[in-house]
Every structure is written in C-alpha cells, then in structure tokens.
Amino acid sequence: MKPLALHPDRLLPADPGTRTIARELFELVDKLPIISPHGHVPAEWLADNLPFTDPTSLLLTPDHYTNRMLHSAAGVELEELGVGVGGPLDADASRRAFRLLCENWHVFRGTPVQTWFESVFHDVFGIRVRPGAESADLIHDTIAERLADPAYRPRALYERFRIETLATTDDPCSDLAAHRKLREDPTWKGRVVPTFRPDAYLEPARSDWRDLTRALGRAADVDIVDYPSHLEAMRRRRAHFKELGAVSTDHSHVDATCERLGEAQVATLFARALAGTITWSDSQLLRAHMLNDQAALAVQDGLVMTLHPAVARNHDSSASTRYGADVGADVPTSVEFTRSLRPMLDAYGNSDGFHLVVFTMDETVYSRELAPLAGWYRGLFIGAPWWFIDETDAIMRYRRSVTGYAGFAKTSGFIDDTRAFCSIPVRHDVSRRVDCAFLAGLVAEHRLAMDEAAETAVALVTTQPKKVFKL
Amino acid sequence: MKPLALHPDRLLPADPGTRTIARELFELVDKLPIISPHGHVPAEWLADNLPFTDPTSLLLTPDHYTNRMLHSAAGVELEELGVGVGGPLDADASRRAFRLLCENWHVFRGTPVQTWFESVFHDVFGIRVRPGAESADLIHDTIAERLADPAYRPRALYERFRIETLATTDDPCSDLAAHRKLREDPTWKGRVVPTFRPDAYLEPARSDWRDLTRALGRAADVDIVDYPSHLEAMRRRRAHFKELGAVSTDHSHVDATCERLGEAQVATLFARALAGTITWSDSQLLRAHMLNDQAALAVQDGLVMTLHPAVARNHDSSASTRYGADVGADVPTSVEFTRSLRPMLDAYGNSDGFHLVVFTMDETVYSRELAPLAGWYRGLFIGAPWWFIDETDAIMRYRRSVTGYAGFAKTSGFIDDTRAFCSIPVRHDVSRRVDCAFLAGLVAEHRLAMDEAAETAVALVTTQPKKVFKL
Amino acid sequence: MKPLALHPDRLLPADPGTRTIARELFELVDKLPIISPHGHVPAEWLADNLPFTDPTSLLLTPDHYTNRMLHSAAGVELEELGVGVGGPLDADASRRAFRLLCENWHVFRGTPVQTWFESVFHDVFGIRVRPGAESADLIHDTIAERLADPAYRPRALYERFRIETLATTDDPCSDLAAHRKLREDPTWKGRVVPTFRPDAYLEPARSDWRDLTRALGRAADVDIVDYPSHLEAMRRRRAHFKELGAVSTDHSHVDATCERLGEAQVATLFARALAGTITWSDSQLLRAHMLNDQAALAVQDGLVMTLHPAVARNHDSSASTRYGADVGADVPTSVEFTRSLRPMLDAYGNSDGFHLVVFTMDETVYSRELAPLAGWYRGLFIGAPWWFIDETDAIMRYRRSVTGYAGFAKTSGFIDDTRAFCSIPVRHDVSRRVDCAFLAGLVAEHRLAMDEAAETAVALVTTQPKKVFKL
C-alpha cells in the first residue's frame, strides 16, 4: 500500500517565487470559517444529528461526480454505489462499493474527485494509505469505525469543518421542519438556512404543473385562480422561507430568457396553463415572464436571486428511468445572457438591494458577457465556477477571465453546491488555494501590491460572500 | 499614504529565466514610437492645443472603463464623474470626482484600470503616492497644477508620448476641420488622421436614417435618389477622408453578416428605405449588402476596413436616456464570422490591396474562426484584443489562440481605441510587455530562437501595423 | 546560414523544477512506437514502396498547413507549391517551391509548421541549417539527394519512424487494393488499416448522390431501391473494410445532428432522394437519421466511429474551382453536441462495444459539452485536438479543459490526421511533450504523484489509443 500524504503547497504555483507569495496569502485564509451560501446537504442531518450509517451512503451514493466517472470510465452500475437503493447499505454492500472506487482509483487522476477524496480520507478520517485495490477494505473499515464515534456525527463535523453558514435547497411547499427544529434547538449554535427553489412551479407545460400549483396554493393558503393569485402565493412562500432564515432563491431553467409580457397576455397564458392547454412555446414565454417576476419579488423582499441556466437534464433517458433525476446525467449547453437578461437587468439591475448571482458551466460567457454586465449593473454578481467546472484549472480560468472587467468586487465568493457533506472543507480549500495562486501571480508580475492581494484574499472568503448573499 | 512605484518588470513572466528573456526583448521596443491607427481622441485637442481644464474632464469623464466600475461596484452616479454635465468641471467638482475614484480604488484591483491609472499618475503626472482616500486631494491638485503647465498641453504630450500616428473616428459628413487645420499648420509635425465611420448610414431602419442620408447627400453633393447615388455619395466622402489622410474605415453592426443581393432587390429595398417603409428584417438585409459594398469601395480606394461587430449597445435603457450613448453600458454578444464574412471574403479576400481587420470581444472566434480565415485569405488580419479584453491576460490568450494558425504576420498590431488621451502610452506599454512575455515563453520553451523573437517583437510595433494599416 | 538544432527540452515547461519532472516523464515515452489510428497517407506509398520523386511533392504539395500560410501571408500561389499540377515536379520547380518556403520562413514563427519542419529537416533529413533565403537550395538539394537513397523509401521510413499502426481514409466503394497488397506481401511487417468514410453517401441533396449511391450498390452487390437496401449496402461495405483491417469509420458533416426518424418518414425521404427531388432541409434530416444508423451498424460490427463536424468546406470558391477540395480553405464553425448527439448517445452511448470518438475545432465544447458527456457515457471518448488546433498551446488547453471532468481515461490519444508522412514522428513527439508538460505541472503542484503521472504518460501513447480504437 502506498502512503497518502497531502503536500502543504498543493495547488499552489510551481514557480518558487510565486509559490512563496501564494503560501503567505494562503496562510491568511487557511483557517477562516466556511461560508456556504448554496448547497444540497439535508438540513435533517444537522437537525437530527444521527450517526451516518455507512461509508458508502455518506461518501459515494450522493456524490454524482464520483458516480458518473465510475459509470463511464470503469463500467460500474450506479446501484453498486447505492444509488436508487433507497436506504443505508449493509457493511458488505458498502465495502463492495468502496472496492469499486479504490480499484478504479486511476480513472480519477487529475480530476477534482481525486483531490477531494484524498483530503476527505486524510483530513476527515485520518487515512494514511492511498486508495487502491489492496487498501480498499482498510479505508472502508476505518471510515466505518470512525462513523460510530460521536466526533463524526453531523453537528460535530459541522463544527470541526468551521462552517459558519450552510444553505440547503428546498421546495417552495416545504414546511422546512428541520430548519424550524434547528432554530428552536437551544443547543444548536450553527446557522443552516433554507433556499427557495421554485423551478418546477415556473414551467407551466410540465405534466405535473397543475398539481404543483395546487400544492403551492395549499401551502400558501391562496386559491390560485389566476396569475395575480399565483404571484401572491409565491410572495407568501418566499416570506415563509425568509422567516426561517432564507437569504436567497435559486433558479435553473433551460435558458436565461426573461420577458415582461403585457397583463392581458399573461392572463391568457396563465388561464391556458391552469386549463392544461398551454403549448410548449407559450409555456417558455410564460416562464420567462414568471422568472422576471421573481426578480420583481426579490426587489420587494430582498432575497438574493441565483441563476444557473442551460443544462440538458437527464440526458440519458434510461438512467433517469432507472434512477430518477440528479444521478449525474445532466449535460451543459451553451448559454446566452446579454440579450436574455436584458429585461430583468434593465428593470431591476441597479435597484436598491437587488442581487442577482449568475452561474454558468459555459465558460465563454465570463469575459464576453458576465464581466461586462457585472461591470455595469450594480445588482449583478458573477457566480464562482461550480458544477463541472469547480476545479483548479477552471477556477483559475474564471479569475483570469472576469477580473479584467469586473475585478474581485463583482464576484460571488466560492459556492460548494454539494451533497457531499464531508467534502465541503476541501472544496473551499481548493478555491482558496487557487484564488491565492491567482493573486500571487498578480503580485509576482507586479500587477498588485502584496497588501492589496492579502486584503483581497481575505475579503473573498469573508466580507465578499456576506455582502453578495446578505449574510 | 502609501508610495506609488512602477516596477520595471511589471507584467513580465514570474519565472526568472523567462523574465530575463522578456526583459531583453522589451528593451528593444520600450522606447519605440507609438502607432495608434484607431482611437477616439478629438482632433480638436491637437488642432487647438488648448490647456486641459481640469483633471476629471481629462481623466475620468471620457473613460467609460473607469466610470462603469465606479457605477457598478461603488454605487457612483455618472454625473458625479462629469458625465452628461456638458463642459469642464469647477475645481471642487473635479476634486470630488477624484475622491470617488481614490476612495474606491480597491474596486479596480487586478483590472487594467489600475494598471493604466498607476502609470498615468506616475509617469505622466509625477505622482508618487498610491490612490486612496487620504491621497485623493493631493493627487487631484498635483494634476490640476501640472495641467496649467505648457508641458501638459495636448501637442506637448503628443510629442512626449512619442506618438507617430494617431487616428480619430469621424462621421462621414464631418468637414474634418480640425484635421484640415492640423494639415495647414506648419508648426505641427505630428500625424493625426481621420477614420470614416458610416455605421448609422448603413442602418436603413433607424428612425434618423432618412435625415442622415439627406445630410450625406448634401455633404457629398449628390442627390441620393437610389442605391447607385447612395454609393456614389459614399465613394465621394471616402475620397474626401482619404484626401485628409484617412487610411481606414470603421464598422460596427449587430453582427458581421454580408450579402451580395441582386440589383433589382437592392433597388426595391433602397426605395422602401427612402420612403421610410422598410421593415427591420429588410433593413438588416440591405445593411449586409451595403457593408459588402464598403468592401467593394475599399478595393477601389484602398482604405483599410476595420470591423468589430456584436455588441448590444445601450443595454441599460435608463442610462442611455439619462446620459446618451457611449457611457459604458454596451455589452458584447457572441459572434459568427465563418459564414457571415464568406460573401465578402470570397469576393475580395484575396484582392490586391484589400485589407480587412476584424476585432472581436468574443474570444472564442480567435482559434476557431479568425486564425483559420486569416491563415487563408490574404486581406484578412486579426485585430488585437480591444475594448473589454485589452488587458494582460486577454492579450496573452489572444496570442496563444491565434499564433498557431495565423502566426504573427496576420495580426493587426495593438490598437488602443481610447478616448483617454493620457492612457495611450501605458496601453501600448501593456501590449508590448505582454507580447514580449509571450515571445519570451516561446524562446524559453525552445519554440523560437532569440533572434527570431527579437525581430518579431520589433516588427509587431513598427512594420506590422504600418503594413496592415498602410501607414 | 544560421545553424539548426533541436533543443532536447523543447516544448517542456520553462520553470526549472517542472521541466525536470517533465523531462523524466518524456524519457519514458520518447522512443515508444507510434500508433496513428487516423490519417491520410496513401496506402499505395507503402504497398508500392517507390522512392519519393522530389522534396516538394513529398513535403509541400500535400501539406495544406504550409500551403495556406504561404498563400495568405506570403502571397504565394498554390501552383507554385505543386498543388493542382497533377504529378511530380521537376528539380527546378521543386527547388523554386522550396525557395518560397525558405524565403518566407518568418511567417511560420510560433506556428506548428515551424516546429514540424525543423524536426523533419533535422531528424529525418539531417539538415543542420535553418531555413532562409540563403539555405533554401542547400536544404532542397540535400533532401532530393536523400530521397534517392533506399533508406528514404516509404517502408524504410515507416520502420525508422517506429510506426506500429497507420490508418488511411478511404471511400466506401474503394477496393482497397493497396491494403490487400500489403496484407498479401510476406515481406511487409507493418500494420496499415483502412478507414470507412461514407460522408458523401449520407448527403442525399448532393448533386452526385444518386451516382454515388449507384456506385455503392455496385460495390456492395446490392440493388439500392429503398432505405433498407441502402443500409444493407453500407453493412456489407463496412464488413469489407473490416475484413481488410479497418477498425473505424470516419464522419464529418456540417453539424453533429442525429435523429431517429420513423420508418415511414425514412421511406418517403429516401424515395425522394432516389428520385432526385429531396429538398435541402429534408436531406439534412435524412442524413441525421443515416448518421444515427451508422452508430447502429457500429454496435453490430464493432467499428469505432469518429466524428468531426462543423467545418465550412471550400470557403474560398475561387480556390476550390481552381484546385478542387482539400487545399486548405476549410474553416471551422461553432458546434453543438449536447443536444445533437442525444439521440445517438441515448440509444447506444452505453452499449457494449460502442465507441464514439468526437473531435472538434471549436474548443469551447471541451469543458462545456464533451467532458461532461464523456464523463457519463461509456462509449464516448474525447478526441485529441487535431486540424487547426493540433499545436502546443491548444493541446495544453485541451488537457486543462477536459481532465477535470473526464480524466485521461476518456480521451482518445493523439491523432496526427496528416497527409505529410514525414511529419508523423514530430507530430506525435509534440503531443507527447505537451502531455508530459501537463502531467509535470500536476506533479509540481502536488495534484498527482510522480508514479501516477508516469503510468499515465505511458498509457496515453500505448494502452489508451489501443483501447479506444480497439487495436
């Protein structure tokens, strides 16, 4: 078995002079608390604080970054990793899944999955051997043993990870019971906030849209008979979320189109939607209007709006039939923001308190559209690279693409967007290291003074995300 | 107050070996004259040679790079920077604007605005303190004092900046009085040339197009009653510009589409345009034909054609209502050249003396479209990164994207495209440094011999722009 | 005359620490055999093993990378390089062409053409002077002399180049006589395999499509009267190719669209195609279905499918009139894969033995579409950068773009895709050097252990292309 060690200078630039600067910057931010304003860890974990059942359910099953590569490059079936199994795995099944991970460890070379797991194994679970066929059982069983220890319960990890704020992502109809439980628990000192995610409710051509709308009406105690009552229901549910700590709403549709339609047209389209007779193209149009109205609501209630359009969901239909959504078969497409967001930005882009954070998996928009837009509109912030591009090289490309015309002040701060709880520290660590590497490059090339770089490095993980997400 | 110094190796590569090479290359070009074949400095400044009135009117008001970041990241209103005020500012207003710049200096970290101002302050005005709340008045007042000195009049600066050629951008109907005045002034030894910019006259659906066309006819002494007479008017105005030194025409439309329509169709569309009944889509079609005919005229009169399409102008409608055009709320969109330019390139791309310089803010076309096109067509040159991407990292990306398939010989040389007169030296300095950094990388990796790199570095700021712009 | 030398560390990173690692990695792969699973060298050269006639016909005429730059940047006409001349050149004409190359050597600075020629001259022909006006004749005549030597016959070079497998590209109707001849020649120990390229046969709106279809029917001994008989003819010709060693089929259309149409619609469209009455848009639709069926056939016969869409062929119509196709006037366009390939990937993407290798000249799809797709679908591999982007910087960008979400295991291995036989070694050498440079960067930044990098470097030129292309 080969030893596993984490080099203190990992991800820092190879040039010795630049590395020295980067290390000095990184030391300033290394131990600072984690602000995670968007993610997918279940609030229940922290509310209930139950021990994690087994290594696979905690580390493999929910992590589609890992699943997808094992599926594509190693021929593994997702069931073997616990996906779709519907519950914790027994020790044998969990151990078998770990063998699949470790035996195929080479497929992760150079990927962030390697970086994340090496850190999770080493720093969270104290593993000191590199994953491989011969170390699989040892790694699995060590983790399994640790999980029985109270120090590995969710709340203990939350504290050990130095998490200051953690956001979940929630259905507008959710009663947010776990969030309420946490709020009412005097022993809980952390901050877990819900996020309002109304995507499905804004797609009138969905086959389940009328059911969803009825549910929304019930949750909001509003009889949704027309567009104004729909909007009122949205307003109430947003208020409910805000009451329980929410600071943002999250939106992902097939594109970023916004529209301000006339009242009469909206009434007609909404009536057709309620009647179940709306066409697909009219549905797109109505959704563009509804999305725009989420911005109007945001101006009123102050919730930050995050947007990450342009993904072909469930690209592999047999996978989605077999396992449902969110198993890793979503694939980005190109995206357009300059024209699409114009109605929203033109109306609200400089409004007091309006914050719109735009994420993309299409890197071409960083220098072409997002930096120029964020360099003009006060409310627009460029989201950090996430999902598919939340790794070392892409984060570096992001800084190199947006800094010229949006500086640091119009960027969101890092977003981990993860279901993989234990990987939260390393994901933020990677981002901090790369930001320090980027800043160190500016200093080494005499483009920025060291004191300016130091202030910026700290701001990017403290004041900046707090300002952008109103924390 | 912190000291302000410019490191001699700024923007050169951090790796010590590569930096040594880069420095050696940069020394060859550091002091060479500036060729600026496209920009927006008013010819009147040089013709009249009046002292600049105040620091803000000279350095802040016309510079939308600075305005837009102060607007978006610091909440400044453009009026506070003198925009739309319609004249020079009094000392207090000018000082207040400088305070806004200096107090918010941190928003420019890592942006070219920081680089440019640091150099302008240090090298042009002898400032030795870093901008900040506490140094704002000192910086402002030092500059104000300098501006009263004859050494800071436009012509003195022109000489001190070692400008060899400076192009302005002008309306086709302009009498170019300032250019004529300069030509007739025996004490003026510089070279300021006009540029023919007919955009508005090629957009028949514009509400002011018929007025513009009448004005064009008057200026050209042609009765514009049909397309041939329109073309004749264009021909005459181009000749007028050429007579007064113009070497190029400049074109920016919503896309790069060119068309060669049939004569009858053109006659019909043009008649509708004159009648004020042309539709928007017919207007686009006619514009594509008219743009193509500008290339036909270029083959005849030898004026170089520059093209920089694909910007959503006046994206923020309230800003354009309040301040008019060109305040910084223009935002790029993606662009397509391979198909769009085919009619023009197929007809004129290899014609004797036809030069087309294409600029883009959509970096994706560099390796995909522009380098392959310029690698085939003799008349096509790839414009340097400008406007939104005229900064260190983007210039480096440009060289890395186009050199493989278009070499250096098919690139335009640097274009500063600026209204900020005092920033011309530093903008060229940045470009020279980055080109030397790129060349040094090639030498360090043994991809180019040192003598080849040295020749190339010099050519890029001397023979290359002269060849491309026929200077 | 300046000396010509190849630095042993060429293309390796400038940073000394990283270079040392890169050199160590490169030594592991430097001398390994060449696997070339896609290219354009005529099989006849190896089958007949005749001496090459003259330096220009061997080195310049077939190399459109060189031709196009001489055309665009040096004003050379392609005839002067032997294009369209229809046969070997006499010594004078060949010498004149070399003078054009050498006198204009500066236009290739920083391009891969410079790298390739320097290596071909130095390593293949023992030239020790740098190309230039004064060395042109010497270089030409030295090469001409060498070509008379049996050591420079095709088979001798094939062995000297350490080629293990070389693929040609062939028309579906080809009898593959040269391939058969090689197979039946007991003295031939190499491996030259044909590739099935049916593009023209899948474009029903082409003016020659009915002739092609008749020829296909004759070659397959099938009476093509409807779509099923067309498919049967395809199946038989693919089998014929496979019999003679083919491992792959190659496809390039204007886009990547795939469709699964209904049987009745296909029958109607195909009948119109046979009748010569199909419209252009119906032809596109039918082609999308036919391309999809090539995947269906691939699942049956196991031939690997390579796809490289989105090029505007013969962009310069006067050049194609004068010289025919493939002279260098093809220009890439943007491409879309996520939606276009969905029908094919959804149906076959995880099927046993289905391999689809996708190439692009639009680099934006690497991180946005191809890495995410290849990170999910088992049969999808990301083709190495080729044609227009097969040079140092682009290869590095490729690795930086795809490794994060597809690792190394879902990449194709290097493809030289060349007609320039003598440049095969240096093209693979460049790729190996850049891959080692990339891996060395990962090691230097502690993102990968040295033993992992070493294994990966070797795999990328041995097991990986063998696996992907089933060699």
Please describe what this structure looks like.
3 copies of one chain form a homotrimer. With 471 residues, the first copy, chain A, is α/β, with parallel strands linked by helices. Chain A folds into 2 domains: 101 residues, uronate isomerase, domain 2, chain A; 254 residues, TIM Barrel (Alpha-Beta Barrel), CATH 3.20.20. Chain A is built from 20 helices and 10 strands. In chain A, the strands form 3 sheets. The first copy, chain A, has a 5-stranded parallel β-sheet, with helices on one face. In chain A, strands 1-2-3 form a 3-stranded parallel β-sheet. In chain A, helix 9 links the parallel strand 2 and strand 3. In chain A, helix 1 crosses helix 19, helix 11 packs across helix 13 and helix 17 packs across helix 18. In chain A, 58% of the residues are buried. Chains in contact: A-B, A-C, B-C. Chains A and C meet through helix 4, helix 6, helix 14, strand 8 and helix 17 of A and helix 15, helix 16, helix 17, helix 18 and helix 19 of C.
Put the structure in a nutshell.
With 471 residues, the first copy, chain A, is of the alpha/beta class.
Q: What would CATH call the class of the largest domain in chain A?
A: Alpha Beta
Known CATH architecture of the largest domain in chain A: Alpha-Beta Barrel
The biggest sheet of chain A amounts to: 5 strands, parallel
Can you identify the CATH superfamily of the largest domain in chain A? Metal-dependent hydrolases
- Tell me the helix content of chain A: 40-55%
Number of strands of chain A: 10
| End-to-end C-alpha gap of chain A | 45 Å
Task: Identify low-pLDDT runs of chain A.
Answer: none
- Helix count from the secondary structure assignment of chain A: 20
> Radius of gyration of chain A in whole Å, from Cα?
23 Å
- The CATH topology assignment of the largest domain in chain A is TIM Barrel
> Kindly state the mean pLDDT of chain A as a whole number?
97
**Secondary-structure class of chain A:** alpha/beta
- Largest interface in this structure: A-C, 52 and 47 residues
